[in-house]
Design goal:
The complex is a heterodimer of chains A (205) and B (125). With 205 residues, chain A is an all-alpha fold. Chain A has helices at 3-14, 16-27, 34-46, 52-83, 87-113, 119-128, 133-157, 162-198. The chains are: A mainly alpha (205), B mainly alpha (125).
């Protein structure tokens, strides 16, 4: 049995504590099959093995707890590391912090449910950049609840095809991440072309 | 770093990201069409997912469109509606190998569907 199957076995034996533990650890960035467990939970809800509301509440709470832990790690250790940077790098960090403040809400929300592989990194970055924690928690809860409801509902609908659907859902998350990275890079290339046409070629930054 | 060098690095990264995204689009679309085809076929024929050790009897019954009771009867295991065990735990408790238990379940499913059993050598439970 692979890791996913072992976790599914544990989920059907022990239920919510396993679901909560896996989601919490997964939201810290440990590569665990969170989507598979959520979809399987939906399937177990459809089969009467688990109850819907406890699954939704426990899964959402565990995911938010994992995200907040990641945020706090970024806030404590990330900010200390940034504080040791030199003045040149400090300017870049300030630019990054401004970008996080500007786009942070959407970044946090979208990486909870659509671009999930980037979620743990966004947690650390949000903490390290000093993104306000009440706003982080609000967007985090909104995104995680949407993620949990979507995947548990999907599991209820496709109750007898958990393996096939969950592998596809995981692939879609990675595809979205690749598309977002390609989009950001394309935007940077276009922006640099615009700056390059105004500045002399080959000049130092 | 010069602007020219930065631009080359950015273009290389963009090329790599677009290639990765293209491969993932191709792979995901192909996988999605396979999943849709499989789901349609299994729902039409009642031929469910391959039986795996993590599955419970109600899950297998739903996947293969048979009554859970007929599977419980086939493996001579009492029904537990509140917390059904995964079949790996059932096999361990009954002292059977996983392969034997899966074969018994597959035979029961085939019998329920009115087909010939796929494992005729398995002794009837």
């Amino acid at each position: 049995m692979n890791l996913g199957e072992q976790l599914l076995t544990a989920l059907s034996l022990y239920g919510l504590p396993i679901l909560a533990s896996v989601l919490f650890i997964g939201c810290l960035g440990v590569p665990l099959p969170n989507c598979l467990l959520l979809i399987a939970s939906g399937s177990f809800v459809a089969g009467g093995q688990l109850s819907l509301w406890p699954v939704l509440i426990v899964a959402s709470a565990a995911s938010v707890a994992g995200d907040v832990t990641g945020y706090l790690v970024g806030r404590w250790f990330g900010r200390a590391a940034l504080g040791r940077l030199g003045p040149a790098n400090r300017r870049r960090v300030e630019k990054a912090e401004n970008a996080v403040r500007k786009w942070g809400a959407w970044g946090i929300f979208m990486t909870r449910w659509l671009i999930t592989p980037a979620g743990p990194w966004v947690n650390l970055l949000s903490g390290a950049s000093g993104y306000p924690w009440p706003r982080f928690v609000i967007w985090d809860i909104a995104g995680e609840v949407l993620w949990v409801v979507l995947y548990v509902s999907l599991g209820e609908v496709v109750a007898a095809e958990v393996q096939a659907i969950s592998s596809l859902a995981g692939e879609i998350s990675w595809l979205m991440l690749a598309l977002v990275i390609a989009g950001v890079l394309a935007w940077l290339v276009l922006r640099q072309r615009g700056q390059g046409s105004r500045a002399p070629e080959g000049s130092a930054e | 770093m010069s602007i020219k060098r930065q631009r080359i690095l950015l273009l290389a990264a963009l090329g790599a990201a677009l290639t990765t995204a293209g491969v993932l689009v191709f792979h995901t679309v192909r996988h999605a069409s396979q999943v849709i085809h499989t789901v349609r076929r299994t729902r039409h024929t009642g031929e469910g997912e391959e039986i795996r050790p993590w599955m419970t009897i109600p899950y297998i019954a739903k996947s293969h469109q048979v009554a859970p009771q007929s599977l419980y009867d086939a493996i001579k295991f009492p029904v537990d509606r509140h917390r059904p065990w995964p079949i790996s735990r059932i096999a361990r408790q009954q002292g059977k190998t996983m392969d034997l238990l899966i074969a018994q379940l597959e035979n029961a499913i085939a019998h329920d569907h009115g087909h010939a059993p796929p494992h005729p050598e398995v002794s009837p439970p």
